[in-house]
Amino acid sequence: MSKANNKKKKSKKKIIAIAVVVLVIGLCIVNSLMKPKKKAVEEDLGIDVQELHKHDLSKSFGVTGTVESQNVLTVSTDITYKIKELNVSLGDYVNEGDVLCSFDDKELNDLIAELELQVSEAEKLSAKNTEITKRALDDAINNKTTEVNNATNAYNTLVDEYNKINNTYNALADKNTPEAVEMAASVKEAEKAMNDAKTNIDTVTKACDDAITTAQDAVDIDAINTDGNSDTTKELAKLYRQRDEMTVTAEQSGIITKLNVSQGSIPNGVLMQIEDNKNLKVKVNIKEKEILDVKNGLQATITADALPDKVYNGTVNKVINFAASSDDVIMDESGSSANANYSAEVIINDENELLLGMNAKVDILIEEKADILSVPVDSIVEEDGEKFVYRAVKQNNDEYKLEKVLVETGSDDGYYVEIKSDELKEKDLIVDYGYDVSEGDVVAVNIHEGI
Fold this sequence. Notes:
There is one protein chain. This protein has helices spanning 3-33, 106-116, 121-170, 178-225, 231-244, 288-291, and strands at residues 38-39, 47-51, 53-55, 59-69, 72-76, 83-86, 93-94, 99-103, 247-249, 254-259, 270-275, 280-286, 299-304, 307-320, 342-348, 359-367, 372-376, 381-383, 386-394, 400-406, 408-412, 416-420, 429-431, 442-443, 445-447. The protein is α+β, with helices and mostly antiparallel strands. It has 4 domains: 1-34; 37-56 and 372-447, conserved putative lor/sdh protein from methanococcus maripaludis s2 fold (Beta Barrel), CATH 2.40.420.20; 59-67 and 278-367, Elongation Factor Tu (Ef-tu), domain 3 (Beta Barrel), CATH 2.40.30.170; 106-245. Strands 1, 2, 18, 19, 20, 23, 24 and 25 form an 8-stranded mixed β-sheet that branches. A 6-stranded antiparallel barrel has the order 4-12-15-14-13-16. The chain has a 4-stranded antiparallel β-sheet with strand order 3-17-22-21, with no helix packed on it. Strand 21 and strand 22 (416-420) form a beta hairpin. Helix 3 (121-170) packs antiparallel against helix 4 (178-225) and helix 3 (121-170) packs across helix 5 (231-244).
């Protein structure tokens, strides 16, 4: 055989070898393309999934404000005699019934004695009766303020107790346990006590209004009966009334936050101000974009930098939904009102150590959605008007097959979204990014914790 023939044979063998290699590579490529349903098994990359759990999707927003008193009492008088004794100083705490100050009554008593010499016994009796009827009216008006405040404070306390018990009950996963049944009964009892307290406010208000009406009727009748009295008798009735007011007592407990008089001075209307420091509220500023979400009765939590370890429960009691003058409003870059030109009052329901005038932070709960079955927003796939997620179901050899599960969605917090489905249960593995996969895919998974 010639050398030329040998060279030709060797060349053919090389071509055949190369052809075989190319064929093998081609078959591998075709085989890979023919198996699109199997992803990331060999590569050990894994599809991101997380266990299905319940999350708190409650919506709230934070505002700031100042601690104020629920009950502010202005102590005033029409007496224009010198203050003989002043028993309080600015910042003092006083109890209801404590003597705040007394006036020098010598000049008044001398004037009464002089006028009594000018009228008959019948006229003196008439003047005293006028003083008694007017004092009864004042007492009835003051009593209404005290009684309604007390009834309202009691109601607010019971509202907070009901909310605590009800929230605890709603958080229970299994409501058929003996403990859950017992707690359900407690919820009903707390709700009844709360409703009874609210009814009591109306009852107390009506009783006080009836007492005021009765007292006012007596004053009106007395005015008719004494219309013909002499000016001296009418002046004597006025002085009798002033004599009963020469000693001023506290009509509520609290702190003296304003003091407009000193010992020896002659008052000019307002003597002082007493603020109840036990029943407190926070007046908060609210921005325009949030004011429409704020309603009476919403629950809130209150904190203060001065008491970093304390959290108090509160209730929105009043919404002031009119804005400041547009001249006073500063707009931010987004075109929203930068100034917090709306406001609301949040009653503090718990006993607390807060002080009048403290700065406080208030978190107002707009919507309560605790323990809600939810998935990442990106898990939801929408097609042809339907929403679904992909559930990873374990197969063999650490592989998982993806199943499409239809769901309904609800509230979301920007990351998690509420889902409803009879097919899903807690700890099911849900694909994080639903648009990256297809139904029937066989994949490796990377199980991670949610946020």
